[in-house]
From TrEMBL:
PANTHER family: SMALL MEMBRANE PROTEIN-RELATED (PTHR13180). Keywords: Membrane, Transmembrane, Transmembrane helix. The lineage of its organism: Eukaryota, Fungi, Fungi incertae sedis, Mucoromycota, Mucoromycotina. It is a multi-pass membrane protein. One of its GO terms (cellular component) is membrane. The chain crosses the membrane at residues 31-48, 68-85, 106-130, 142-165. It comes from Umbelopsis vinacea. It is found in: Membrane. InterPro entries: UPF0220. Belongs to the UPF0220 family. This is Uncharacterized protein.
Length: 178
């Protein structure tokens, strides 16, 4: 039995979940965007800090290669893909995969974006385990792998916060068309 929200859209939930950030008032969208940007910057800062430390260590056992960079690049591409999707194009009741239906194309790209993010995070965890934990490198070099996982985790958190912030409805919304 489908549940209909007050706006007339279908929902998969039986109960309507209230917005946990309602106490922020009119500024919740701006605060969410700034928080997402901060988490994105912290993620890349953690990775660049690990790369900088690795380049200055003359006695390092592990060198930084392309396998260390690719997980952060995939996660960032996933964030870009997810946040470029128009949220209104995800709502639709058509289950047809033929014709000019925009709904399934938007859902497909949303899936690709989340797959890129999940693949980036899984890749960073695999690099951490296979390159830094299994060969038992010194703890000072273990930070290089931890920086990669932190990078992907913060970018993933940034994506979720930005997605929620973009979906918040403002009280007054004006759409101008020229």
């Amino acid at each position: 039995m489908p549940n209909y929200l007050s706006e007339g859209r279908r929902s998969i939930f039986l109960f309507k979940i209230p917005n946990p950030f309602k106490f922020l008032g009119d500024k919740q969208k701006a605060i969410g965007v700034y928080a997402a940007g901060a988490f994105f910057a912290i993620g890349w800062w953690a990775f660049i800090d690990a790369i900088t430390l690795a380049s200055r260590d003359p006695f390092k056992q592990v060198s930084i290669g392309f396998e260390d960079w690719i997980s952060g690049i995939l996660t960032t591409l996933g964030m870009i893909v997810i946040n470029l999707i128009d949220k209104s194009s995800l709502h639709g009741d058509t289950f047809s995969y033929s014709g000019d239906s925009l709904v399934w194309k938007a859902r497909l790209f949303l899936f690709v974006g989340f797959a890129l993010i999940a693949g980036g995070l899984a890749g960073s965890v695999c690099v951490l385990i296979l390159k830094y934990i299994v060969p038992e490198v010194p703890e000072s070099e273990l930070y290089y792998g931890i920086g990669q996982v932190a990078q992907c985790g913060f970018i993933m958190l940034s994506t979720v916060i930005l997605w929620i912030a973009q979906n918040t409805q403002e009280e007054y919304q004006y759409n101008f068309m020229l």
